[in-house]
Specification:
The complex is a heterodimer. Helix content of chain A is 82%, strand content 0%. By secondary structure, chain A is mainly α. Chain A has a single domain, classed as Four Helix Bundle (Hemerythrin (Met), subunit A) (Up-down Bundle), CATH 1.20.120.610. The longest helix of chain A is centred in the middle third of the chain and has 38 residues. The radius of gyration of chain A is 18 Å and the shape is elongated. The two termini of chain A are 13 Å apart. Chain B is built from 24 helices and 12 strands. In chain B, α2 crosses α5, α13 crosses α15 and α18 packs antiparallel against α20. Classes of the chains: A mainly alpha, B alpha+beta. Chains A and B meet through α3 and α5 of A and α12, α17, α23 and α24 of B.
Chain lengths: 158, 668
């Protein structure tokens, strides 16, 4: 049962962050495509902005991966986990799963506005990049807590 | 730290030299023309040449459209990379002069191309109309009279349609009057019929038919089949014409140079006329005011006064003036980050150029975030190749690649420090294919994955240093502007408070264990640092609100500024992204390595490994380099600049040949 909860945690991290990023990148992509119709030379810049909400999915993947390798699923020799420890892994994955989902979507909103900004004043690209990056801070903090918790769990008795 | 020193320049010259002087200024591109102090009044007036400038802009636009039309038919086949790296071509001055001589001829050619292009567009618009008409006629192709045939002397004839759901047979049987209804064709939407009835009954018949859903067919003067044949021929002719026009336009492919020249030439001329419109002029003279870099001033003064009868006055900016800003740092190491500073905001009147400080930390922070030696090597080599391959690149592009060149070097350094080369690729390859799990690239320092907490402590340390340097920059600025109060109250007190608190924390063994340091600072440091921090805190409370006269308000405001210590906390915590992004690069790289090695050794395993390796690491380097770039900028803009930098400077934009395709090579 412990193993189940641990895998559930890993899957949630990848799942929710992935959903968030997919929504986010899609939303920003629509805005980017609209801008590129009229101003094809801005393609490179709006592409960068479109990609910004995509990192949460990668962080989620990362958390999922380190959880799976910690519990031995990736290496092919899964260890027996107590239910309590499995739940601990699940809890450790939660920050990334939830913050990843919501921050990606919110970051996309900021990215869409930044894309509009770049379409009106292309030379303000540097500033426009910062607004979505502000949102990403919280995804990074969640990533950090999840990582630290999962690594810390390695030394907790099963 | 160099903002280029600016001089105000004032030129008074004869009107007959106006064209030559403006062309000289434009060629050198060293003076930014600004509206002058001399107000147009009785003596001076301005000459409105905007209509001339608009005309030239239109020419330039036309030439650009013509060039677009030619490029559509005869594209320049450059690779994506090549067109990315392509800069402006150089054009020798004599060729430029020769082309100026032929400008009318070139503009005639432009009109010719545009006419052809317009005709092509008309033909293209015609085709769908023809096709629509043909589709409308298609159900009637069996009919052997025109659709608007009225009937004979005693009968009336109608062609029309029923909706498909109507049972036509039943309708015709329900009619009392004698009619003949013939079904020509039926589709899922409609049934096409012809109706013949006696003339005297026609109204009654039509009424009933309409009630059943009958509606009239489109008109045609010809028999439908014949008209369709004509339409086919017409479409054929339009297509042939389009092909012909395209061939004619493509024949202009060897005139691209002329077209590009026209785009540039008229654009530059329009700029010149815009400047003329802003000049104060009298009957025989004109005045020009502007800004220029001090270092360029003597050469220009010499050239103008020798060539023309004119007066040129140079002076330093006045207190009240806000001269435009240009950054200049010697060497690409510092110069490369100028665009980073510029895209935040150029230094304002009271700022100094922070490029050097930004550069030092930029490379370190970037390297820490990407932190993979192999990725660093790829970036460094790619940037070096790009820099070498580019001819006449725009300044911004060049600096962009220079910046990534240095970022790459820093990434290599941190990669080896942390033992990451395509993640753990060395170990994975050795284990999977050579059965030597003992081989691995050992970190020179330590691998963050083994001890993330220690790495986090290090990142906070880097952050604290970065922030303290930012505060130091503020100190420097206060001293530079002789603001002693600001230096002590806003900088020194904060140094005392934050520095003191950090030392207090580091004497506690709980904190040092948490940060993975070997041992806490000696406890004897505790009391002095407590005192220092306390002095800092009291100082901030007393002086943080020093602009208020009322002591009560002042203390309240001081307490509020002490509350700013929380922003120091969040600023320092923000540097944990260095750890998070560094881990992300390494772990994702390992994921791909592991995925690639899942099939084990052998030939098949090697092939799969190579494919996964190439695709996976390409993806990883792109995503993480983007992340590192964005978050390095953020740390610089928000945390670092927040400590001292105001910005708001205006960019120095000299009056120059702003061309798109060519740079004119001067005769020496």
């Amino acid at each position: 049962m412990g193993l189940f909860f641990a895998i559930l945690g890993a899957v949630c991290a990848a799942l929710f962050s992935g959903i968030g990023s997919a929504i986010g990148v899609g939303r920003a992509g629509q805005a980017a495509a609209g801008v590129t119709t009229d101003q094809p030379d801005l393609f490179g810049r709006v592409l960068v902005l479109q990609l910004l909400p995509g990192t949460q999915g990668i962080y989620g993947l990362l958390i999922g991966f380190i959880t799976l390798s910690q519990i031995g699923i990736m290496g092919g020799n899964a260890v027996e986990l107590s239910t309590a420890k499995g739940l601990m892994y699940f809890a450790a994955c939660l920050p990334m799963a939830l913050v990843g989902l919501i921050s990606a979507i919110q970051q996309a909103n900021a990215a869409v506005s930044s894309i509009n900004m770049v379409s009106k004043s292309p030379d303000q690209f540097g500033k426009s990049m910062i607004f979505p990056a502000m949102v990403e801070t919280y995804a990074i903090l969640a990533l950090l807590i999840s990582i630290l918790a999962i690594f810390g769990l390695a030394s907790v008795a099963a | 730290m160099a903002k280029v020193a600016m001089k105000h320049v004032f030129i008074c010259a004869l009107k007959k030299d106006r064209k030559a002087i403006l062309e000289t200024l434009q060629l050198h591109g060293t003076v930014q023309v600004v509206p002058g102090d001399v107000k147009p009044g009785d003596y001076f007036h301005t000459e409105d040449r905007t209509s001339a400038s608009l005309g030239f802009r239109q020419y330039s636009k036309k030439a650009s459209d013509a060039l677009g039309a030619v490029l559509r038919e005869a594209p320049e086949n450059k690779g994506m990379l090549e067109s990315l790296l392509a800069g402006k071509d150089e054009m020798p001055a004599e060729q430029f002069q020769e082309l100026i001589g032929r400008r009318d001829e070139i503009m005639a050619m432009v009109s010719q191309i545009l006419d052809l292009d317009r005709e092509k567009a008309e033909c293209e618009a015609e085709i769908p109309k023809i096709q629509a008409r043909r589709i409308a006629l298609d159900p009637w192709k069996e009919l052997d009279v025109p659709l608007n045939f009225q009937g004979t002397r005693t009968t009336n004839f109608f062609a029309g349609t029923f909706p498909a759901r109507v049972d036509v047979k039943a309708v015709s049987e329900s009619l009392k009057e004698p009619v003949q209804i013939r079904i020509l064709s039926s589709t899922q939407q409609q049934t096409c019929v012809t109706v013949i009835c006696e003339k005297k009954n026609s109204e009654a018949v039509m009424g009933q038919l309409r009630a059943a859903g009958f509606s009239k067919a489109p008109d045609s003067v010809d028999i439908p089949a014949a008209e369709m044949k004509k339409l086919d021929a017409q479409e054929e002719a339009e297509r042939a014409r389009i092909a012909e026009i395209r061939k004619q336009i493509a024949a202009f492919a060897d005139k691209k140079t002329e077209l590009k020249f026209a785009v540039d030439y008229y654009h530059v001329r329009a700029d010149k006329y815009d400047v003329i419109s802003g000049l104060a002029q009298s009957g025989k003279t004109f005045l020009l005011e502007g800004w220029m870099a001090a270092q360029n001033a003597p050469a220009l003064e010499k050239e103008l006064t020798q060539k023309f009868d004119c007066v040129l006055e140079l002076r330093d900016p006045k207190e009240t003036e806000d001269p435009p800003v240009r950054l200049h740092n010697k060497g690409s190491f510092f110069g490369a980050v100028e665009p980073v500073v510029e895209s935040y905001s150029l230094p304002g009147k009271n700022d100094f150029d922070p490029s050097k400080l930004v550069a030092l930390f930029y490379y370190v922070l970037f390297g820490l975030m990407l932190s993979d030696a192999a990725y660093g090597i790829i970036m460094t080599v790619a940037s070096a190749v790009a820099l070498k391959k580019m001819k006449n690149p725009p300044e911004g592009t060049k600096k962009f690649f220079q910046m990534f060149f240095y970022c790459g070097i820093s990434t290599i350094f941190w990669g080896f420090m942390q033992g990451s080369f395509f993640g753990d690729a060395v170990n994975v390859i050795a284990t999977t294919f050579f059965n030597r799990p003992d081989i691995a690239l050992n970190p020179i320092w330590f691998a963050p994955l083994d001890n993330p907490i220690r790495m986090m402590g290090f990142c906070f340390g880097v952050g604290l240093l970065h922030l303290f340097v930012g505060l130091g920059a503020k100190l420097y600025n206060c001293i530079r502007t002789k603001d002693v109060k600001g230096a002590i109250f806003d900088v020194v007190f904060w140094y005392m408070l934050v520095g003191g608190v950090v030392v207090i924390l580091l004497t506690a063994s709980m904190v040092t264990v948490m940060l993975g340091l070997s041992q806490p600072l000696p406890a004897s440091l505790r009391t002095p640092s407590e005192i220092i921090a306390a002095i800092g805190a009291v100082g901030i409370i007393l002086t943080g609100g020093r602009e208020s006269r009322n002591w009560f308000k002042r203390i309240l405001k001081g307490l509020y500024s002490l509350y700013g210590i929380t922003s120091w906390l969040s600023d320092i915590l923000s540097y944990s992204r260095l750890l998070a992004l560094g881990l992300a690069t390494g772990v994702i790289a390992s994921v791909f390595n592991k995925m690639g090695s899942m099939l084990g050794g052998g030939v098949l395993g090697a092939i799969v490994f190579i494919v996964v390796f190439v695709v996976g690491h390409t993806l990883n380097i792109l995503i993480n380099a983007l992340g590192a770039y964005v978050h390095t900028n953020r740390l610089q803009y928000v945390e670092f600049f927040g400590k001292f930098y105001e910005g708001g400077g205006k960019k120095f934009t000299p009056f120059s040949d702003e061309t798109k395709y060519f740079t004119i090579k001067e005769d020496v």
